[in-house]
Amino acid sequence: MNGPGAKGGTTVRDALRGWGGVTAMAVVCALVALVALCLPLTTATTSAQNTTATTKTARTAAEEDCEAPEKQTLSPSSADGDTIRAIKNREGEKRKLIVGVDQNSYRWGYRNPNSGKTAELEGFDIDLVHRIAEDILGDADAVQFKAIPTDQRIPAIKDGRVDMVVRTMTINCDRIADVAFSAPYFKTGQQVLAPKSSPVKGYDDTLAGRRICTAAGSTAYSTLEADKKAGDLPASTDISTTVPNQLDCLVRLQLGEVDAVVTDGALAASQAAQDPTVQLKGDAFTAEYYGVAMKKDADDLVRRVNQILVDYRKDTANGWQASYGKWLSATLGKDARKSEPPAPQYLRTS
Hints:
The protein is α/β, with parallel strands linked by helices.
């Protein structure tokens, strides 16, 4: 058999002569056209894959060299992606945003017994959840609240039981390895809560020999553990008491089972408002930021929440400032500036 280039052999040009050749040529042209049509799609897919890869690379680098976890979030966007479309495609009564919240933190996320038979959830975090639902689903009440204990916040996200957690959750380096956070929406710090009659004066040597309660999986516990190992906390301080929900620490304190509680100052102030026999002792000894937590791969949802937070802070009538005034000014003071986080900074992914 002669090859295509051999003397006397049949060339492609020869094969395409005549009506049979015309048909063959049409097939070739159609294939060429199909390839041309597919090129833009291939380019777009490759571009999207490159963007995702760049985002993952930036995020991984930030996690490995974590110094300011509150700055390691994605830039705002109002675009719908796979995560948001899946939420919107839920049918009937299931078409709701599923959010993990607290139901026991006074003025943050709690059931107000005076709000009627349903005792609906209210508070600063709850206001933010309604704002997110309104933006994504067009209905502020399109929310399914799930009460999540402090130590179950990350498992609930990773297991897909909730779309997000809005529950006074501090952004820190350990957590960004497991979940993605929005930009900060509140600034706080760890403080000591103790009975007014207690000799404890703050986060200092007066904690020697004292029993301290913290919530399991909280930044309070990890801070105490690290400080004790480093010698910054008296060796005789007992930090073994941990509870699933932070509010349980207040109960332990009231029962005399512990001598002090360490938690976020914003939460401690609300607890002091509930119980006039206890008070904050000393100043905050850390600077921390609350963020909305979501799944690691939910980039579109993270970006959307960040856009919502930008708009929420700009909305002076019904946004962040109004919610602070309604829920937190009585316990944290009328000047909201000390609690408002700085202008957000985002990961550079391009």
